Amino acid sequence: ERPDLKIYGSEKGLDLVPGLEPSNAMHDLQTMTIGDLCICCMETPGHTADHCSFIVTHVTPESNKNPFLFCGDTLFIGGVGRLLDGPTHGHDLFESVKKLMA
Fold first, then answer.
1. Helix, strand counts (H, E) of the chain
2. Do 87 and 44 touch, CB atoms closer than 8 A?
3. Given Cys at both, which of 25, 53, 57, 83 links 67, Cβ 3.0 to 4.6 Å?
4. For 2-16, how does the pLDDT look when each residue is reduced to its tens digit (9 = 90+)?
5. Comparing 42 with 88, which gets the higher pLDDT?
């Protein structure tokens, strides 16, 4: 039995991501807060046209914890993800990696 979970993702993935509802579709740099965590959606196209990454930070002023990144198949230790939507998205992937490094 599946748990009743909400799926969040890029608004560009509404027609592509099973279970992504319009109310849970996030736009570029939109944030949400859960407890003491702030989650920022960053559109990072390239691997797929609708790909997004999530940066998670702690919002409490006394926190000394490092932010962390969920980037899916955009970035790996040894390189970047494949271009699943075709080679024309190579520039998008390059720009997305630059955006994540900023």
1. 1, 8
2. no
3. 57
4. 788 899 999 998 998
5. 42
Residues 6+ apart with CB under 8 A from 3: none
Exposed/middle/buried for 48, CB within 10 Å: 0-12, 13-18, 19+? Answer: buried
Q: Residue 49 pLDDT more than 90?
A: no
DSSP-assigned beta bridge partners for residue 57: 38
102: Cα within 13 Å, side-chain hemisphere:
8
Contact in structure between 51 and 42 (CB atoms under 8 Å): no
Please list, residue by residue across 55-89, b when 16 or more beta carbons sit within 10 angstroms of its beta carbon and e when fewer do.
Answer: beebeeeeeeeeeeeebeebbeeeebbebebeeeb
For residues 92 and 83, what is the distance between their CA atoms, to the nearest angstrom? 10
Q: Name the nearest CA neighbour of 74 among 102, 43, 37.
A: 43
Helix (H) or strand (E) holding 96: helix 90-101
pTM score of the predicted model: 0.84
